[in-house]
Amino acid sequence: MKRAALLIVLIAVLVPAAAGEDSSYYGIPAGGIVNDVAIAADGRYMVAGTGEGSIVCLQRNGTIAWNVSAGNAVTAVAAADAGNYIAAGTDAGEVLLLDERNGNRYWTASVAGPVRDLAFSGDGRALAVGGNRITLFDHLGAERWNASIGGSSPVSPITTPVVPTVAFTADGNYIVAGSDNGAIHFLRRQGTRAWQALARGPITAVDVSRDGSVVAAGGRDRALLIYNREGGLVWAMPTGAPILTLALSADGRFAAVGKEGGDLECYRPREGLLWTNRTGGDVLAVDISRQGEAVAAGTAAGSVHLFSGAGNARWSFDAGAPVTAVALSRSGDYLAAGAGEQAFIFRTADVPVPAPTGPAENATPVATPTRAGGAGALIGIVAVTAAVAGSLFRRR
C-alpha cells in the first residue's frame, strides 16, 4: 500500500507539471512574406502582417488566436497598450482597426498613398498613420486631421516625399514623424505643428520618449540626432554608416541603433556610445524594452539577436530568411519577429533551440515548439511512471 501511495503521489506531482510546460518559442507559417510585427505590452500575443494580406495573431503559448484577411498587402501593424485594439495598414492606403481578441474589424478608413507606419497613443484612443501625409484617427474611425509634409528638401531630389516612420508619446500629447525629404515633424495631438527640423538626408526611423522630452531621428546621413520637446538639437552623433532603424527606451535614456553593414549600437543620448555589437548583416529591425533591460535586432542575414541592456549577447537565432521586423514586450520578456513567411514569438529568458524536423506526409502547418510539452511530456511521464510502478511491485 505504501508503494501504491507513492506511485499516486508521483503521478499527482509530475503530470500537472507536464501539462503546464510550454516552449521557449513558437514559429508559424504566416501565409506570405511578413512585412511587420507587433506585440502586446504584456507579451500575451504577437501580430504579423503579410504581403499576401494576412493578419495573424499568435499567442505566446503557440495557439493561433485568429487569422484574417485585409484584402491587400499589409505593410504595417501596431498593438495598442490599452483598449484591446490592433491596427493594420495596407499598400492600398487602407487603415483597419481590429479587436485583438478575435480579429473582428471595428472600422476601415483610407489615407492618401500606401500606409508605411502606424503608432497608437498610450491610451489606445488615437492612431497616427504615416503615408503620403501624416493622418490622425480616433478609436471610432473618425479622421481628426491630416498634415502635409512639404516639398523636396534642398539636398534631396525627391519631389513627392512620404512618411516611412511615425511615433506617438505614451501620454498621447505629441506625434513625431520622419519623411524621406529629410524633414522631422513634431506635432501636437490637435494637429498643430510644434516644430520641424531638417536633416541632411532621408529619415528612415524616429522614436520619442513617453513624455516627448527626447526625440531621436536617424537616416541616410549617418548621424543620430537628438532633439528636445522644444525642437532644439541637443546632440548629434556621427554613426559612420546609414541608420536603417532605431528605438528609444520609454524614458529616453537609451537609444538602440541598427545600421547598414551590420553594427548594432546603443547610445546614451547627450553622452555617448555605450556599446556596439556586430551582427553579420544589415540590421533591418531593432527594438528596446521600456526600461532598456533588453535590446533585440533582426538582420538581413536571417538572424534574430537578443542582448542585455549592457550589451551582453544573450542568444541568437537563425530564422532562415531576412528578419524584417522585431518587437519586444514592455519588460522584454517576450519577443516577436518576422522572417520570410514565418512569424515567431520567443520567451526571451530561454535560448531558442530549433526543434528537430523530419519528413512528414500530409502534414498540417501548426505552431512549432522547441521542445516537447503538454501531451508529449505527459506520455513520457506516464511511461516513466509505469516503469517505476513495475519496479516497485516486482520488489514485493
Walk me through what this model shows.
It is a single chain. The protein has 396 residues and is mainly beta. It has one domain (27-353, 365-394): YVTN repeat-like/Quinoprotein amine dehydrogenase (Methylamine Dehydrogenase, Chain H). The protein is 10% helix and 46% strand. It has 2 helices and 33 strands. It has helices at 2-19, 375-394, and strands at residues 25-29, 34-39, 45-50, 54-59, 64-69, 74-79, 85-90, 94-99, 105-110, 117-120, 126-130, 134-138, 143-147, 165-168, 174-178, 183-188, 193-198, 203-208, 215-219, 223-227, 233-238, 243-248, 255-259, 263-268, 272-278, 283-288, 294-299, 303-308, 313-318, 323-328, 334-339, 342-347, 368-369. The strands form 8 sheets. Strands 30-31-32-1-33 form a 5-stranded antiparallel beta sheet, with no helix packed on it. Strands 2-3-4-5 form a 4-stranded antiparallel beta sheet, with no helix packed on it. A hairpin with a 3-residue loop joins strand 24 (263-268) and strand 25. Helix 1 (2-19) packs antiparallel against helix 2 (375-394). The longest helix is centred in the C-terminal third of the chain and has 20 residues, at 375-394. It is globular, with a radius of gyration of 23 Å. The model is unreliable at 1-21, 356-366 and 370-396 (pLDDT under 50). Residues 52-212 form the Pyrrolo-quinoline quinone repeat domain. This is WD40 repeat domain-containing protein.
